[in-house]
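Quick bug: diguanylate cyclase output formatted oddly.
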Amino acid sequence: MKHPAPGLAAAAEPPAAYQSARPCAGSAADAALPPQAAILVVDDAPASLGLLHDMLRGQGYRTFVAISGERALDLAQRVQPDLILLDVVLPGLDGLQTCRRLKDNPATADIPVIFVSACSDTGDIVAGFDAGAADYIAKPLRPLEVCARVRAQLKARSASRSDTQQARRLSMIVEGMDEGLLLLGPDGRIQYANPAAERCLGYREAELAGRPLAALLAGTAAADYTAYFSKHAPQAQRDSGSGEARCRGTREVLLQQPDGGLRAMDLSLSAMASGEQLHVALLHDITHHKQSETALQRAALADPLTGIANRRQFDTCLEREWQRAVRSARPLSLLVLDVDHFKLYNDLLGHAAGDQCLQAVASTLQAHALRATDLAARYGGEEFVLLLPDTPHAGAAKLAESIRADIERLRVPNPRSPTSDFVTVSVGAASFVPSLFDDIRSLFLAADRAMYDAKAAGRNRVLAVEGGYTWETLQRALAR
Ligand SMILES: Nc1nc2c(ncn2[C@@H]2O[C@H](COP(=O)(O)OP(=O)(O)OP(=O)(O)O)[C@@H](O)[C@H]2O)c(=O)[nH]1
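Here's what came back:
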């Protein structure tokens, strides 16, 4: 007598009469079958118990036996066999009751039960299935039939087990992934949201269920996805519009958060290859990416010392405002401002103090850039500019004087300056209405020229000019 495991019921030694039972057709080693499937045989009649035991052993199965329902319940729970062959008529707990208890217990509910019984009326068979059996074999036993039915049940169990395993694995992946995953119905409403999607969207799954994806989107994406899903709803016509094209694949979208904020995400939408017209939406949070992108863009356009716009941003802005002034025939003004005797300041007080001085000048200039379209920038060194779209000569001259006076009022000492005891600036202002025939360089050259003239005239002053350069003047100025 062999003992499969300590504490388990011993497998019954097959009576000699059955030792010669011929193996059934088909092999228990079929690829789809679990290796050495374990089968629990429950029968109180030694003859049929022995026959079944012998037959199953002959097929390579591990076999366990029990002669009562109570014992079968205990063994099933501990051994977790792949299949139970259960007699209907048993002392004490009968087969039907035993089967019901097996099915009621979550630990044994999934184990398939085949009734093996001499009671083979239709009523008995129906009662067996009603009790939860997977199959019913009538006695007297026909080995080929028994083996085939056993094999079929083991195959089905193996398939359902691997399905369950697969589903468990998939669910672990989906639940644990960093990307948000939404399952959408044909109407674009959310059917499932994984934990990462809950985090991305700021709602719990229960709050998301049934909501249209489009309702969570901001801007034009909302309308695009609404249209996309109305086209994909059942009975809908397919369309090849651009809105639909924009919704397929990956798209950058803004998602509305419960607190009213917006979050930038990459949204990838793909239709599932199933008849249910379901879609999977993947959400990848790109907030940090966007923030650093914006910070980089800002940094690329800002002067690191003073924080105001740099020359690059000024050039871009001048180009844009120049074109706008040409179209609108409105005056465009530019101030060019240079710190007087700054070399003397630096030489006496040091470069660090010089930097602070430039920061103070930049803040004063920035404080005068009042309109949204005005742009204060550091052009280079101790030279600054202020671009004033839609500003005529008089207004630009007035503003230039106000800036000059405010900088003088800062009373930043410049002891070596022959012009003043304090830091001062010279400002050149140029204003004109550019036409298509004018050269964009002429505005800066005119303002710069005026600034140098202001220096030459004694510094700490404004010199404002009106009108553009002629072609000849421009060429001469560029040649200097
Ligand atoms: N501290 C500091 N100094 C700078 C910076 N950029 C330029 N400078 C200095 O600014 C000074 C400019 O000197 P100059 O071009 O001779 O002009 P200036 O002394 O201001 O004389 P005028 O313009 O004729 O009144 C130089 O000493 C530069 O080193 C900067 O970022 N920080």
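Actually, after a second look the formatting is fine. The two ends are 113 Å apart (CA to CA). Closing.
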